[in-house]
Amino acid sequence: MIKRFLSLEWKSFFRSASFGKSLGIKIFMGFLSLYLIAMFLILGIGLFPALQEFFPESDPLLIVNSFLFYWILGDLVIRFFFQKLPVMSVMPLLVLPIKRSKIVNYVLGKSVFSFFNALPLFAIIPFGVTLIVKDYPVSQVIGWMAALIVVVLIINFLNFIVESFSAEKELSFLPILVLAGGLYGLNHFNVVSFSEIIGNGFNAIYNQSVFIVVPILILLACYVLNFKLLKQKLFLDSGLKTKIKEVNTSNLDWTKNFGDIAPFLQLDLKLIWRNKRTKSTVWMVVFGLLYGLVFYVNPQFISMTPSYIFVGVFSTGIFLMNFGQFVPAWDSSYYGLLMTQNLKYEQYLKSKFTLMALSVLILFVLGIPYVYFGWKVLFAHFAAAIYNMGVNTHVILLGGSFNRKKINLNEKAVFNYQGTGAVQWLIGIPILLLPMGIFAVVYFLTGFEIACLVLIILGIVGIVFHQKIMKLITKKYTDSKYKMIDAFNQDN
């Protein structure tokens, strides 16, 4: 059965409509993985001599054990944001004579072979070998290493438990931050010395390997709890259950002033406010608006005039970038239905354009107080805003025609890379680097004012030729319509 599951996932990977884009991302992640592996290898090899050099009177093993609490805590937090439970498209399997327990065991078993579980081994094994070379008892070192591996697996399953209980919450990252912060605080202020407890525990395992039974029992408990939680959700109708809650309606009559695109604007605004994933674009607006404070309060950056455009494009275009890069994937769950309606594709795209252009205008107005740092800053932000409205809105809409990845709007937003493909990685080049490059070249050849005027002119040209540009973009979307419908119907 496991062989059959692996075969299905292999076919799903290669037959996916986003195979080419996913492959590119996986190659990039592969290089990143090799880099991390190299770093952990260096850590594992160099840790013992480094500890001997800095703490010549202490046993390196005891020092490592005393810091294991911080490693466990940090690993748990990092996994929460980056590690996801390996899933497979189980819904079709639920109508077949396959026991749910087998499916759950396969999914949980697959998580054991996660990169997050393998990475610590590149530090644990070299350090353990170094201990053996330094005449530490072989059997005791092996027992200690085995205990660490068990703890790695405990963290793996504990992460899924935390995710399971926090996934339904609006700010799903708060429970893990509160938990980690609370444990760290208790340890830091010596209310409960977790670092000492865990350190003594591993010292005991090193001295008496029989104590490894304790972490093994904890591992089994975590596995069983994960099994029960996952099995409870493994029903065909589990996704049909809805929460009963009070609905707060908003008055969107003002959108009627935009004419025939009003229904699409209303749909987008409701989509943004009612879903976890899209709400993140709203919170990111606050971050983008205040982003300039990172640069402008620093005298070193305030003297770097070309950086003004980067900050201007980013702060006035933060919503444009976060929302626009996933057009039309935001509507992927009902995209097929949307395309069967009697609507004009150009109206659909025009509503997206209008929403992004309005966001640029609003963010520029809200960012006017940046004039405190000088009129050049405000002028650069104005030029960036015009460029965003005239150029970047069209660029990001054009990039959306290459989107082939579905987005689940109910998934938590924090560190959620669902729907992210090669397009989302590459779109940053024309969006951020191109205006900065144009500005820098003109700035060094002529001056600040001319460089800003060039960006303003480019933006105005984009606004003037908006209708013609939109027709070209609409044609691109129309040509890709059926490919996108097919891709959005897949779980990729």
Automatic annotation (TrEMBL):
Signal peptide extent: none
Transmembrane segments annotated in the record for this chain: 27-50, 62-82, 103-129, 141-161, 173-192, 204-225, 280-297, 309-332, 353-372, 378-402, 414-434, 440-465
Entry keyword annotation includes Membrane: yes
Top-level taxon: Bacteria
The protein's name: Uncharacterized protein
Pfam assignment, any one: DUF5687
UniProt KW keywords: Membrane, Transmembrane, Transmembrane helix
Stored InterPro entries: DUF5687 (IPR043742)
